[in-house]
Amino acid sequence: KAGVTQTPRYLIKTRGQQVTLSCSPISGHRSVSWYQQTPGQGLQFLFEYFSETQRNKGNFPGRFSGRQFSNSRSEMNVSTLELGDSALYLCASSLISPSNYGYTFGSGTRLTVV
Amino acid sequence: TQLLEQSPQFLSIQEGENLTVYCNSSSVFSSLQWYRQEPGEGPVLLVTVVTGGEVKKLKRLTFQFGDARKDSSLHITAAQPGDTGLYLCAGVPGGGNKLTFGTGTQLKVEL
Known about the structure:
The complex is a heterodimer.
Chain A: E1 5-7, E2 10-13, E3 19-24, E4 31-38, E5 42-50, E6 53-57, E7 64-68, E8 74-78, E9 87-94, H1 98-101, E10 104-105, E11 109-113
Parallel strand pairs in A: 2-11
Antiparallel strand pairs in A: 1-3, 3-8, 4-5, 4-9, 5-6, 7-8, 9-10, 9-11
Chain B: E1 5-7, E2 10-14, E3 19-24, E4 29-37, E5 44-49, E6 55-58, E7 61-65, E8 71-76, E9 85-93, E10 100-101, E11 105-110
Parallel strand pairs in B: 2-11
Antiparallel strand pairs in B: 1-3, 3-8, 4-5, 4-9, 6-7, 7-8, 9-10, 9-11
């Protein structure tokens, strides 16, 4: 079966712009989470969506937002980009709950803010 | 302060050597997971341990969950270059609901 698909793989944006990243989970998976990965901070939790509702949220500013559609596909948006937003953004899906079933991760979107 | 501390942070060994990676916390976890991440890819789930004291084996990898469910270890026997990668532990602390990842251990196995 197809894995978790993230698009685009690479993105270069300018400070102040906004960006939208897309994630298609494994078919049947209803939980979709987003993480930011940087060399200094490791994997930091952004948010989790389940059945189109945000179920959990990390400690990121309001510039980071997300949503989930009825087909479980998810998008995350970052507005007013800052240099520090440069990172690998990972999407992960789980059947119901990642604590019980674990995550399947996509390959990530590498965002560079210049 | 990270909820899950891993040690060592970096490990470079020769093929055939054994190694152990540790994942420690002051919090109790209902379960812990281990992932491996290779460059340019997302982490891949290796195992989930649920019961305190539980030991799981996956070929040359042995995972153990501490009796108090606050720590876990990953032991690799006769490491191979294919084991190279970033090893991450992850868990949901008691009373919480977010899967939190550890600080990571970067392993390099050389010929």
